[in-house]
């Protein structure tokens, strides 16, 4: 299973409150391990200052890194005093997502936590370009932490694909459930719910085929999805009351059920591809993510290969 004992927290440079670090400490206190508070910073104005020599620019960068390191140390002071193992690392890098992924590759981090923003409780979470790059390209699971308190008795909702007959979807479904249930058992025995969506009757079929009975079609599709869900829940000994199969598009069904359950996190599988196409999550995953109002844990298939290469010149 994913032990989540070598966590990288992407620090938000814009605010003192760090929900992702707080969530990492919450996990650490229950499952152990170590935490790295990581911040890639860059100020283009320093590179454009022609009046400064290369050595002076280098010293200015070192000064900024030192200031930011001390700032993070202040944010983490209470946790460190409480005995939490937190390493602080600040580097100069102009592409944050690349810096984070290269750090993951270089030091075998098994989870990235990053804060995401939400304007108010009625709006979906807002994802930045860096967030999307991490969700698409980071080889380890990415936990996007909402800047709102974790709900009381917050549940974990696993979004499963019940429609596909392709083997990699079944393997990914099982991985999502296995990792989530094992993690939930270690963290406060969190309730785990499985959610699947099935499509509505295509309007064009009903119009073009006069003898077509939409209700029969809907019943057949629902039946197939219920059978698939039953097989999944039985494999992992999950009660029927913790499974949900609903009609509609996944990007509507999954966020809505998560909201009804007052979920703390939605766990979602992202399609893994090699080569250039590894930059893509898949349309369904992206649409679901865009509608969420809670934390998101995105997990890749076992065969995922990140399109970001490890920088051999990286300094430890």
Structure description:
It is found in: Cytoplasm. This protein is an alpha/beta fold and 316 residues long. It folds into two domains: 1-147, 3-Layer(aba) Sandwich (Rossmann fold); 150-315, Rossmann fold (3-Layer(aba) Sandwich). The chain is 43% helix and 19% strand. It is built from ten helices and ten strands. Strands 3-2-1-4-5-10-9-6-7-8 form a ten-stranded mixed β-sheet, with helices on both faces. Strand 1, helix 1 (19-31) and strand 2 form a beta-alpha-beta unit. Helix 4 packs parallel to helix 5 and helix 9 runs parallel beside helix 10. It is elongated, with a radius of gyration of 22 Å.
Instruction: Compute the number of helices.
Output: 10
Derived structural class: alpha/beta
Largest sheet: 10 strands, mixed
* Overall morphology: elongated
Overall mean pLDDT score? 86
Please report the first level of CATH classification, the CATH class of the largest domain.
Alpha Beta
Strand content: 15-25%
| Domain tally | 2
Nearest-angstrom radius of gyration?
A: 22 Å
Write down the secondary-structure element order: EHEHHEHEHEEHEHHEHEHE
As a percent range, the share of helical residues equals 40-55%
N-C termini distance: 28 Å
Number of β-strand runs: 10
Task: Give the low-confidence spans.
Answer: none
CATH topology of the largest domain: Rossmann fold
CATH architecture type of the largest domain: 3-Layer(aba) Sandwich
Strand arrangement in the largest pleated sheet? 3-2-1-4-5-10-9-6-7-8
């Amino acid at each position: 299973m994913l032990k989540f004992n070598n966590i990288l927290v992407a620090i938000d440079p814009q605010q003192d409150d760090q929900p992702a670090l707080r969530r990492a400490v919450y996990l650490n206190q229950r499952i152990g391990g170590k935490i790295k508070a990581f911040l890639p910073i860059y100020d283009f104005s320093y590179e454009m200052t022609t009046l400064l020599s290369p050595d002076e620019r280098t010293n200015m960068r070192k000064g900024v890194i030192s200031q930011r390191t001390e700032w993070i140390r202040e944010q983490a002071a209470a946790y460190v005093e409480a005995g939490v193992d937190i390493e602080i690392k600040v580097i100069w890098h102009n592409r944050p997502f690349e810096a984070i992924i290269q750090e993951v590759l270089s030091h075998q981090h098994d989870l990235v936590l990053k804060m995401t923003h939400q304007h108010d409780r009625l709006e979906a979470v807002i994802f930045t370009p860096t967030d999307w790059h991490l969700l698409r390209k980071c080889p380890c699971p990415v936990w996007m932490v909402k800047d709102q308190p974790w709900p009381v008795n917050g549940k974990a909702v696993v979004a499963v694909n019940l429609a596909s007959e392709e083997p990699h979807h079944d393997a990914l479904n099982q991985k999502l459930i296995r990792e989530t249930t094992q993690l939930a058992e270690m963290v406060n025995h969190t309730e785990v719910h499985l959610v699947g969506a099935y499509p509505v009757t295509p309007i064009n079929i009903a119009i073009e085929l006069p003898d077509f009975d939409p209700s029969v079609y809907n019943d057949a599709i629902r039946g197939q999805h219920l059978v698939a869900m039953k097989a999944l829940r039985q494999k992992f000994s999950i009660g029927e009351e913790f499974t949900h199969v609903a009609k509609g598009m996944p990007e509507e069904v999954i966020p809505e059920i998560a909201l009804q359950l007052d979920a703390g996190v939605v766990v979602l599988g992202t399609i893994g591809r090699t080569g250039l196409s590894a930059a893509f999550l898949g349309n369904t995953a992206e649409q679901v993510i865009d509608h969420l109002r809670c934390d998101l844990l995105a997990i890749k298939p076992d065969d995922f290969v990140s399109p970001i290469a490890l920088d051999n010149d990286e300094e430890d």
